[in-house]
């Protein structure tokens, strides 16, 4: 964990999200100015706990880091944060925004539980993981606006699940290089796909069918989120801009016939900032 020194905590959070969560960084830049710092602090916290799994393969060391954040979260809400950028920034943000500790704790606990279990048995397990590790960020972003609406929460939940499933799909090649299987066991068995073939980066019709099943479920959640827009009057298009990222990735995935190893999927989309800005301007996500 980096100490603050001369570094501005607000800038640190912003740069952390830019480095590790670029697409959501672009979305956050399009939030109203008075909400931006809070949103970057929320996303930076999520980055900090997400990268723990990538920093070590030793469960004892990762456990120490999760315990650090568990203690730090308590200190943040007691207004006694350690001298580190993200805790200091979150403490500052909490003076102006009423954010539920429950959602931060949920993010942390779900990451730790996943670290211990590693694999997913089925798609529903990925959906639950997404509900615990993505949707809380959406709920917290809504809280920065002071929005309390069960219909909007349903949108946040479905969008979170779509985001989480897409993140799982996108991370398959990365995890395969580390010989970690994150695709649902039941889908691999049903389609006759071996873990070794995934680890070797071998594309096949059977693997593409597994990816198609996941992508279809993500698309179902995205469509459901969009279908609920007529249930409320609040304009939350800026908060739900990540839906544009999900939609565009699923479209690209379809164009390469669900070949997760296609180089076309791993190129940064230069026009994405334009598409996000347009979506915000016309309030269409």
From TrEMBL:
Fetch the Pfam families from UniProt: SQS_PSY (PF00494)
Please, which domain of life does this record's source organism belong to? Answer: Eukaryota
**What organism does this protein naturally occur in?**
Microctonus aethiopoides
Name of the top EC class for this enzyme: transferase
- Keywords of this entry: Carotenoid biosynthesis
Signal peptide limits: none
| UniProt-listed GO biological process terms | carotenoid biosynthetic process
Q: Which reaction does it catalyse?
A: 2 (2E,6E,10E)-geranylgeranyl diphosphate = 15-cis-phytoene + 2 diphosphate
Coiled-coil regions listed in the entry: none
InterPro entries, alphabetically? Isoprenoid_synthase_dom_sf, Squ/phyt_synthse
Enzyme Commission number(s): 2.5.1.32
Respond yes or no to whether keyword Thylakoid is given for this record.
Answer: no
Q: What is this protein called?
A: 15-cis-phytoene synthase
Query: Could you confirm whether the keyword Plastid appears in this record?
Result: no
């Amino acid at each position: 964990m980096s100490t603050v020194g001369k570094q501005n905590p607000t800038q640190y959070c912003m740069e952390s999200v830019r480095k590790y969560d670029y697409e959501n960084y672009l979305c956050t830049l399009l939030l109203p100015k008075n909400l931006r710092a809070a949103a970057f602090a929320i996303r930076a916290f999520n980055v900090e706990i997400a990268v723990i799994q990538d920093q070590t393969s030793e469960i004892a060391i990762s456990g120490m880091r999760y315990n650090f954040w568990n203690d730090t979260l308590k200190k943040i809400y007691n207004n006694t944060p350690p001298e580190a950028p993200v805790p200091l920034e979150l403490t500052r943000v909490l003076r102006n925004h009423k954010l539920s500790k429950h959602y931060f704790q949920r993010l942390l606990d779900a990451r730790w539980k996943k670290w211990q279990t590693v694999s997913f048995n089925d798609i529903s397990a990925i959906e639950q993981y997404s509900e615990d590790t993505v949707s809380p960020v959406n709920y917290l972003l809504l809280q920065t606006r002071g929005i309390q609406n069960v219909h909007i929460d349903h949108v946040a939940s479905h969008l979170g699940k779509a985001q989480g499933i897409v993140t799982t799909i996108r991370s398959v090649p990365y995890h395969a290089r580390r010989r970690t299987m994150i695709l649902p066991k039941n889908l691999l068995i049903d389609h006759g796909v071996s873990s070794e073939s995934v680890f070797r980066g071998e594309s096949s019709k059977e693997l593409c069918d597994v990816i198609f099943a996941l992508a279809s479920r993500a698309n179902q959640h995205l469509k459901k989120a969009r279908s609920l827009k007529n249930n409320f009057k609040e304009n939350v298009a800026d908060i739900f801009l990540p839906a544009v990222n999900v939609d565009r990735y699923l479209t690209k995935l379809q164009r390469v016939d669900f070949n997760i190893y296609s180089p076309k999927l791993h190129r940064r989309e230069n026009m994405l900032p334009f598409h996000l800005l347009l979506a915000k301007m016309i309030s269409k996500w």
